[in-house]
Amino acid sequence: MAFSLPDLPYARDGLAPHISEETLNFHHGKHHAAYVNNLNGLIEGTDMADDSLETIVKKAAADSSKAGLFNNAAQVWNHTFYWHSMKPGGGGKPHGKVAELIDRDLGGYDEFVKAFKGAGGGQFGSGWAWLVYKDGKLSITKTPNAETPLTDDAATPILTMDVWEHAYYLDYQNSRPNYMDAFLNNLVNWDFANQNLADAGA
């Protein structure tokens, strides 16, 4: 079963001006597509050829000889999750269950913003900032390169922010903080976060 590049959940210009159509043309149309193509080449003819993407990520993570497979499979999964973590007209304070849990577990929205930006800004080099649900509560974490909370069976990813340079360089150059502000103020998809919490039984 070959994987296909998933469509964006909005038009290529749907996140403008905060993330430009040019950025999505490269980020989705080139980077994400390359991970999909590499993944298909790596699983072709193997015992993982018919596995789900999540299964491939977890199997490859457990086998150090499959680092290349893990990197490509995890990046396919991470990017798909990232696209859904944003929406046109998003951002600002959360609502619903995620708002309740941010207040309860993270000290309120302002503290969440500080910690989430700290995770994204504190990730040296390429990686991801995550909001996850684990052990009955929300927490914030970061992962380098292609690493993902998906490999932790106890954790459910709720939101992610890509802090690889190709996510923001065309629009923000080397100012990761400005990109993170735009993500939180104008793009974050709290409906997606609430759906992920509901799916986790929160």
From TrEMBL:
Cross-referenced Pfam families: Sod_Fe_C, Sod_Fe_N
GO MF annotation, one: superoxide dismutase activity
Statement: the UniProt record of this protein carries the keyword Cell membrane: no
Membrane-crossing segments per the record: none
Keywords: Iron, Metal-binding, Oxidoreductase
All residue ranges annotated as the Manganese/iron superoxide dismutase C-terminal domain in the record: 94-196
Domain of life: Bacteria
A cellular-component GO term for this protein: cytoplasm
Domain Manganese/iron superoxide dismutase N-terminal: 3-87
Gene3D superfamilies linked to this entry: Fe,Mn superoxide dismutase (SOD) domain, Iron/manganese superoxide dismutase, C-terminal domain
Broad enzyme group: oxidoreductase
E.C. numbers: 1.15.1.1
InterPro entries: Mn/Fe_SOD (IPR001189), Mn/Fe_SOD_BS (IPR019833), Mn/Fe_SOD_C (IPR019832), Mn/Fe_SOD_N (IPR019831), Mn/Fe_SOD_N_sf (IPR036324), SOD_C_sf (IPR036314)
Cofactor(s) in the UniProt record: Fe(3+)
Catalytic activity annotation: 2 superoxide + 2 H(+) = H2O2 + O2
Family: Belongs to the iron/manganese superoxide dismutase family.
Purpose: Destroys superoxide anion radicals which are normally produced within the cells and which are toxic to biological systems. Catalyzes the dismutation of superoxide anion radicals into O2 and H2O2 by successive reduction and oxidation of the transition metal ion at the active site.
Protein name: Superoxide dismutase
Taxonomic source organism: Hyphomonas pacifica
